Amino acid sequence: MSEVRKWFTGLKVLGMRQNLETTAILLSRLGMPHLKFPSIHVAGSNGKGTVCSILSNCLSLAGMSCGLFTSPHLCFVEERVRIDGVPISTKIFDQCLERIREGALVEPVTMPTYYEATFLVAMLAFEDAGIDRAVIETGLGGRLDSTRLVHADCCVLTELALEHTDVLGETLGEIAAEKAAIARPGEIFLAKWTYDAGARKAIEDAVANHKLGFWWRPDRALLVRFDDTGKSHRPISEIASPSGWSPYQKEASILAHATLTLLDLFEAANMMTSALLHTVWPGRVQWLEHEGVPILIDAAHNPSGMQKICNQLCVQMEQDEAPTPGVVLLGCTAQTDVVGFLNPLVELLVAGEVGHVVVTEPKKGRRQAISTTELAAELEAQGVLAVIEKIKNPADALQRALELSKQDASQPILGIGSIYLVGNILTALGLDTVDAMTTLRPSDEGVHWT
Q1: What is the CATH number of domain 3-281?
Q2: Residue 443 confidence (pLDDT)
Q3: Which of 157, 255, 267, 428 could bridge 62 with an S-S bond, Cβ 3.0-4.6 Å?
Q4: Global confidence as pTM
Q5: Alpha helix ranges (H) inside 130-196
């Protein structure tokens, strides 16, 4: 490991920092790279990464050079910084790290956290590449996240859920206030409608000029302006999504299209159909095949995300639109509500008469994994009749799931839980490569179920 990588890895001991001061100081020392291009800034609990990947690909296909910053990563840290869908090289990442370390050591010494350093790498890499525009995914919350410092001419808020309540607040309204704080004065703000009155108020309060704030209402297929929710609206045209895309993926495409339209980026908006055919967002409702066994992986990291994917699979199984999984591979990090998190999966296991569940403990994550003993006990307490096996190492757990699948005519495996588990699975399958983590692909590699 190079010296700069050792320094970078050592930053993990600083943990998470909830303020903007350090990042702002370092950006100033680095020449303010974040102000050299406009950005679309995206926050939310579910679907924000999918929105970001679609937006980025629309812009790239329209002929604009687009930088994409997301977090966390699945397999390798360079995934967090993409240009036109492709992760930057290790060489470029390290060169940016060297500049950041030099800036950090200027007196007074100002050390970034690991996350802040990745954000700074993205800003330098995007500036050096001369990108036309960036799409930036918020890390945690919004108000005190480093990404809040980018020059954003449009902000997007995807679906909200109760998550990270120890940091963001215990109610949806408090969480909404933290995330909606990415709103920029005088710039466009687009949010997915929420039925929680406290959350709606917090979001609308964050936008000073309600003529620039818009709700996307899926229940009415309308774009409704904040200042006149009763009258001012624009119907949203139906966007054809690839077969097999989940409801939240289709919703992400609508949010992305509305964003580009509100920004008058019509050429990019017109690339939506093509972008959807070429977009692969690794680890999110992604079908793979290994040794003749179909594998569906999804980073359903909170109760809302788990509910969505399980509901979709139940419906598609009933309509014979997707195969029923024969084996489920499950692993997750600490949950605020582990019972609520597992409930949708339990319903899927019962409805699909799934015979085997392999529980494991995701590795390399920032948060502690729930033990296999606790997961197995909770599944049993909820009445799961499947045979439950406990295998701590994710790679070994995947191998066991493959063995079980092959014993029963290669029935599909569902790998679900934390984003770290998904990364562990992809690594075990040998898909921890630049090509596998590229989000803009030939159409024959696009999203599909079978």
Answers
A1: 3.40.1190.10
A2: 55
A3: 267
A4: 0.92
A5: 165-168, 172-180
